[in-house]
Amino acid sequence: MARLLVIDDDRSLVELLSDYLGRLGHEVQGTGDGHAGLEALAASEPDLVLLDVTMPGLDGWQVLARIRAVSTVPVVMLTARGDEPEVLRGFAGGADDYVTKPFSFAQLAARIKAVTERASPDRAEGGTVLRGADLEVDTVRHRVLRAGQAVELTPTEFSILETLMREPGRVLSARQIVTSVWGAEFVEETGYIRRYVWHLRQKLELDARSPRYILNERGVGYVFPAET
Amino acid sequence: MGVMRARIPGPPMTSGRLLSVIRWVLPLVLAGLAIFFEWGEHIAGEQEQITTGFIGEVVLFGIVGPIAVFVTLEWVSRLLHAYAEASASLASANHDLEEKVAERTAHLEEATAELAARNADLARANRELRQLDRLKSEFVSLVSHQLRAPLTNIRGALEIVGGDAALLPPPSRRTLEILTLESERLSRLIMTILDVSRLEAGRLSPKLGLVAIEPLLARASASTLGADRGRPWSIEVQPGLSPAWADETLLEEVIRNLLENAARYSPLDQPVLVQATVVDDGIQISVTDHGQGVPLEEQELIFDSFHRIGEDDASVQGYGLGLYFADRLVRAMGGSVAIESPVWPDDAAPGSRFVVTVPVAADGPSDPDDGPEDA
To answer: ipTM exceeding 0.95?
Structure first.
């Protein structure tokens, strides 16, 4: 489990998060403003920081900049604004993830797990972040990175990629993919898969005619190649 | 505005008077000259007696000729008179016309000035409305953001207590369940308000892609109607239906909104029918209920924000945002939403059908080797 630092001026939220995350086995330290948070960071060297954006005095962005000047500790931003420019600003500023209020604590716990796994791949337990070649698929945040660059996929395209990446090197038939993505009741609806894979390759592959990530075993199915 | 003014010239008054003198004097002078000439030729000359030739010429040149001249001059005089009258009448008409043109021009200028004043009023009202709309959006956004923080705490606290629910007596467990459901409802409302606000501000743009319709309808129906305490429902999809070209997440949100609407406005034991088929201009998805229906006069307003059917009916939950949001989302994806009601020949439960049309995806890959044989 991880040592977490919560920096948020909402004392009720800090108390509730300490209780909830503490029950999950995390060690939680809470602070009510940016200055106290930076001091706690220097003193305790946590595994991950939960940082509120809107705070009096130093706001979340300023605290994030100061953290990044001295540390690579993973930071998850907590905010009441979920606009795309705001999210992009967070990532550009060095945030590792972004959770918009109102969030469920279970969802936040999953995000913490994904971010800590990504930061320390050797600690990964449940496989929330899948890697293959230069692809990184975060199954909690539904985020795909190719060589560090975000690739936007539709939910179904994401599920198909996740299905293939969970079993690298194994050829999956269209029926198996459909069953995994939509459920057994749609096992006969294999006609869509070929079109989805075509679109997926257009977005994912550098050259869709010579795919690297989703290979075709003619007459059998598709495979995400195992790393050699 | 300038007006062309033309004046038709009339005959000068002196010419008229001169002609009236000449028409008498000229024939008399001609008669006198003719008689004098004929007298000189026939009587004072070689013949020295009155002959029939003398009489005939006197009658012809001294009487008939001058009379003809008189008649001609009289006719010319009348023509000139008529011409003068016509000219006067024309001048009078022209004058009237000029007055009318001037009057209308004045009216027009007045109307133009009034129109300009109204335009200025409208522009001012428009600016004020935009300002109000911006303030409203900012207010909605501010309130929604301010609500999100305490709501996070409430939901978090409920999650913590929910972990110990087994230790609670059954009535307290049920209270906890209700609290959780209500907090989720409040969360959905706030998120919808924020989404609407984002959509109106142009900050929510659809990400279009391939969408397989049947799995989407199954997911949306299961998550809304499946939780509706035994509500019967069915899905009918045209075999081999082409995929749509839409935003998968937003389209599912739209269908969920329509399904929640159908569940809200129809009795629990009445089925909801979800159908999908291909039409000329896209994929058509319909949600049909056996509810109270939507009166014709309501159908025009039903996609307006905060408009609810049966607003006085406190038993019907809702905020009048779902259909408005659905309509705006579908239009942003290049589609349309329509309503049909009544659907069934049943006065007590005529039902409603909401029809969503979204573009069909273009044909897929043309490379025959691109894909497994069984795909």
So the answer is: no
Residue B364 falls inside a structural domain: no
Smallest CA–CA separation between B293 and chain A, in Å? 33
B150-187: pLDDT as tens digits = 899 999 999 999 988 889 898 888 888 888 888 887 88
Answer yes or no: pTM beyond 0.80: no
- Residues of chain A in contact with residue B180, where contact means CB-CB under 8 angstroms, are none
CB contacts under 8 A, A 149-168 vs B, are: 152, 154-157
CA distance A100 to A98: 7
- B342-348: list long-range contacts, CB under 8 Å, 24+ apart: B342/B293, B343/B288, B343/B293, B344/B290, B346/B290
Please give the residue of chain B at the shortest CA–CA distance from A210.
Answer: B370
Q: Which domains does chain A have, with CATH numbers?
A: 3-123 (3.40.50.2300), 129-223 (1.10.10.10)
- CB A16 within 8 Å of CB A22: no
User: What pLDDT digit, counting tens, does each position of B100-138 carry?
Assistant: 999 999 999 999 999 999 999 999 999 998 888 778 777
- Domain span at B245: 209-358
**Quick one: closest CA in A to B190, which residue?**
A102
